[in-house]
Specification:
Radius of gyration: 16 Å
Number of helices: 5
Oligomer: single chain
Distance between the termini: 19 Å
Strand order of the largest sheet: 2-1-3-4-5-6
Order of helices and strands: EHEHEHEEEHH
Strand content: 15-25%
Bound molecules: inosinic acid
CATH topology: Maf protein
Number of strands: 6
CATH architecture: Alpha-Beta Complex
Helix content: 25-40%
CATH class: Alpha Beta
Structural class: alpha/beta
């Protein structure tokens, strides 16, 4: 099956390609397809918007991830708005903005959520979800990963996600879990 990966986020592309490497799928990068505005109210709605638009335009199956970080002390913010938190333009700026918002808060608990949708040009849609709970540090640590990875230590770990290899992150992450569920469904085991 040919599957277009409906994201321009290089970090996501890396993780999706690694997770699905052992499936017999031809993964195609998103090229020249304008992505829709993410107007949904949930991860599911935004992932469906992206996957269905790309499936319709490319006439191939399309895989989209919509994800975010939910911070307890901020009542679940930024959630679906994680990519545009504070209206800022870079991961580093958003990390510093998050640290500023959390200054003085004892509760550093947070969770990542990923919803992965595989859409067919026929309109058929499959949805998979994964979550990862952990704690936010007071300063970034590590050079790997993307987004809020340098601030996030998963439960049961001592390193941040940015201090792990793609494979190590994949084995425990929200996206890794959603993609593992997709693989299980596709393999029928
Ligand atoms: P989306 O493109 O609207 O799904 O944006 C997802 C945003 O959530 C990313 O740009 C990151 O800021 C954040 N995010 C999602 N997954 C991860 C992850 O695995 N690590 C770090 N940040 C993530």
């Amino acid at each position: 099956m040919t599957v277009t990966v409906a994201t321009g986020n290089a970090g996501k592309v890396r993780e999706i390609a690694a997770a699905l490497a052992d499936l017999d799928w031809e993964l195609r990068p998103l090229q020249g397809v304008p992505m829709p505005e993410e107007t949904g109210a949930t991860y599911e709605e935004n992932a469906a918007l992206k996957a269905c638009t790309v499936a319709l335009v490319t006439r191939t199956a399309a895989l989209a991830d919509d994800s975010g970080i939910e911070v307890e002390a901020l009542n679940g913010e930024p959630g679906i708005y994680s990519a545009r938190f504070g209206g800022l333009g870079s991961d580093l700026e958003r990390n510093l903005y998050l640290l500023e918002k959390l200054r003085g808060h004892a509760n550093r608990r947070a969770k990542f959520v990923s919803v992965v949708i595989l859409a067919q040009p026929s309109g058929q849609v499959e949805t998979y979800r994964g979550e990862l709970s952990g704690t936010l540090l007071e300063a970034p640590r590590g050079e790997g990963g993307f987004g809020y990875d340098p601030l996030f230590v998963p439960d049961g770990q001592t390193r941040t996600l940015a201090e792990m290899s793609v494979a190590e992150k994949q084995a425990i992450s929200h996206r890794g879990k959603a993609l593992a569920a997709l693989k299980t469904a596709k393999r029928g085991n």
